[in-house]
Structure formats: structure tokens, C-alpha cells
Write a structure and sequence with these properties.
Blueprint lengths: L2 H7 L3 H12 L5 H8 L7 E7 L5 H14 L4 E6 L8 H10 L8 E6 L8 H15 L3 E7 L3 H7 L4 E6 L5 H7 L2 H4 L2 E5 L6 H15 L9 E4 L7 H18 L1 H32 L2 H6 L5 H14 L15
Parallel strand pairs: 1-4, 1-5, 2-3, 2-4, 5-6, 6-7
This protein binds guanosine-5'-triphosphate (GTP) and magnesium ion.
Magnesium ion binds next to helix 4 and helix 5.
Amino acid sequence: MHDLAKKLIDKDMRALARGISYLENDHADKLAILKDVHDQGKGAHIIGITGSPGAGKSSLVNRFIQYLRLKKLTVGIVAVDPTSPFSGGALLGDRVRMAEHFTDPGVYIRSMGTRGSLGGLARTTKEAVRLMDAYGFDVILVETVGVGQSELDIMKVADTTAVVLNPGSGDVVQVFKAGIMEIADLFIINKADLPGVSKLMTEIEGMLDLVKHDAAWRPPIAQTISTENKGMESLWTLVQKHAEYLKESGEGERKKTRILQEEVLEVVHYELMKRLQKEQQTGSWRDQIERREIDPYTAASQILKEFIDDPADVERQDTTTKEG
Ligand SMILES: Nc1nc2c(ncn2[C@@H]2O[C@H](COP(=O)(O)OP(=O)(O)OP(=O)(O)O)[C@@H](O)[C@H]2O)c(=O)[nH]1
Ligand SMILES: [Mg+2]
């Protein structure tokens, strides 16, 4: 087993941190580590939290962490910022708000940015969740701004996807259009201190009648006021209800199978993309084409042959601990 995988499974938080950096930097040992931790997951309940910018996701996550910690549950958090990983005001705010958890060994917070990834933020986020599960948190929270396809992809890793809405924001229609309605397992009306809560309830129920009228699980609606630390208990109750449903209906297992099946093709796709990018920059066929020495079809089949002769090295065993 890879040294880093072993360490993080043994609850070494620094190894977890380094492991996630390996993912972000596409370290050569990445696949080997992921392979080693694959069946080491401790069965964390993974909760995805998505919603429009400013819906209060971070405030909510912050309170929810506090609540879970009082219940003696350990929590891993992946905060995905699709815009600016380092300069973003929102993220800076998140850091400050979440700072109080930094000294708690039962909490690990990680921000993920788009830097350097080949459109691979969703991939990297899912992989980070895998490492966190192998480390052994009871609950893993993934916060992302629900705007596009890549955020929907991120949410696929969650057992329970919660969509945060605000009263008086007109969010529901947007959420509906973005296809978020389909992936929602529960709704959270945050800022329930503001007027328009019952109107929003009616709107959500109306949408659910359209989208989920024959679904086995009808997403329930929680109400929270993050700024006043209200609603965390009922939110947790609904999450647990959903977890129970996943287990009893077998849907949880089916979901996991689907995720794993998709993952196979995602890894292949990702590895091929990486190599194609490299080919684009450094392939010797480029000069050969320029000199008209080779036709595109021969060049292409040569590249494909190289790929086949040298598949991604999942077995790599590099136990020297280079800082990634
Ligand atoms: N009135 C009221 N304001 C809230 C509540 N929860 C959060 N806010 C405020 O809403 C604003 C946005 O909160 P954030 O937690 O940063 O929202 P976010 O969804 O994480 O925002 P992004 O990460 O930028 O998408 C802040 O000013 C919060 O104080 C609430 O329950 N009631
Ligand atoms: Mg936020």
C-alpha cells in the first residue's frame, strides 16, 4: 500500500491534507493512492449543499458543523469555489467564518479551486471526498454554488443533496431550469427570518408536484436561520430520514454502483485528456505534419498505439514522501 494511503487511513490529518494536494496537482501517485483507499471508505454520510451565491450556504455549513460536533460527530468539509480560489471575497469570508473550527481535530475544512485542473474540479472534489471517507469522518459536507453542469457533477458524489433557497429571491424557477430540482433530496429554506417563507414553500411543493410526483422519495423542506443558529436539529433529522430511506429502499447501494460505474469512464476520460493535451504540446508528429512527412491518420494511430502500450500507471508505488 502507498505510504500516504496507509497514513491517512490511520487518521493522520497531515497525510490527508497532502493526499488532497496530490489530487489537485495531479501527482504521479494519485491513482495509486485512490486505488489503495478505494475499499477503505468508512461509510461517511456525504451531504452536498448547493444553492445560489449568497444563499447562506457557508453560514449554514458553519452552524451545522457546530451542531454535529455537539453530537460528537466528526466532520470533513470540501468547499468548492468555482470562481476564484484565492482572491475571492466569498472564500475569504468563509475562511474567517470557519476559522473557529480550525483548532478542532474533529473537523477538517478544505477549499478547492479550479486552478490547474483540466476542467477537473468535479473529479478532484469527488476524489477528495473519497480520501476524507477513508480517513474516517462521520459526516462529509460538500458546499458548492449551484450554477452549472460541473456543480451538478460534484453533487453526484453526495448521498444527500440539499438545495438552499431563500424566501423572496425567485430562486425556485432558476433552480428548476438548472436541473437542480431533479437531484435535490431535500430543500433548505435558509433566511427563514425573512418574509415570504410560506410562498416559497408553496412554490417548492408546486415544482415537486411536477418533477417528483411519482418519486419514491419526495424531498422534504427544512427551515433554517443560520444567523440565529436555528433549524439545525430539524435539518439533521431530515438528513437521517433520507439516509434511512437510502438504506431501506436499496437506492443507496444502487446510487453507489452508478457512481462507481461512471467513475471508471471518468478516470479513463481524464487520463486520456491529460495525455492528449501533452501530445498537443510536445508530440513529435507535429513537426512531421509540418514537413508533410506523415498523414493525420497514421499519426493518430501511432498516438493511440502509444497510449495502449503505456497505459496509466495505477500500480505505481512511490513511497518517498515528496511534498506535493
Ligand atoms: N437574514 C439572514 N441572513 C443570513 C442568514 N444566513 C446567512 N445570512 C447572510 O447572508 C449572507 C451570505 O451568506 P453566506 O453564508 O456567505 O452565503 P453563501 O451561500 O455561502 O455565499 P457564496 O459562498 O458567496 O455563494 C451573509 O451576509 C450572511 O450573514 C439567515 O438565516 N438570515
Ligand atoms: Mg459560501
